[in-house]
Each structure stands twice: as structure tokens, then as C-alpha cells.
Amino acid sequence: MIDNIVGTLRAFWGLWVMGVFIGIVAWAYWPKNKAKIEAYAQIALRNDENEER
Phi and psi (nearest 5°) for 15? Predict the structure, then answer.
């Protein structure tokens, strides 16, 4: 029983990975998340040496 399930999942691992990838890309490009993603992109460019956390 378990061997059949594992065999089926292994046969379609590429589809599972592609589905996860498409889900991540869709989340990143969703209009609601635009401001948050742009803020994350600016983290490396900020100069926080003089600011308190």
C-alpha cells in the first residue's frame, strides 16, 4: 500500500516541484505583496549604522 503511494509520488516529483515554484512566483508577483517585496529588496541598500533597532 505505502509502496504504491511512494512510487506514485516519485513518478510525479517534477510536477510537484514545478507546482511549488509556480506558487512562489505567483505569490511574489501578486499585486497585494508588491510593497512588501520592494521593501525587502531595499534591505541591502539601507544604511542602518546610525539608526536604533
Answer: -65, -40
DSSP string, 9-25: HHHTHHHHHHHHHHHHH
Strand, coil or helix: what is 2? helix
Buried b (16+ CB within 10 A) or exposed e, 13-45: eeeeeeeeeeeeeeeeeeeeeeeeeeeeeeeee
pLDDT in tens for each of the 53 residues of the chain? Answer: 889 988 888 888 899 999 999 999 998 889 998 888 889 888 888 877 766 65
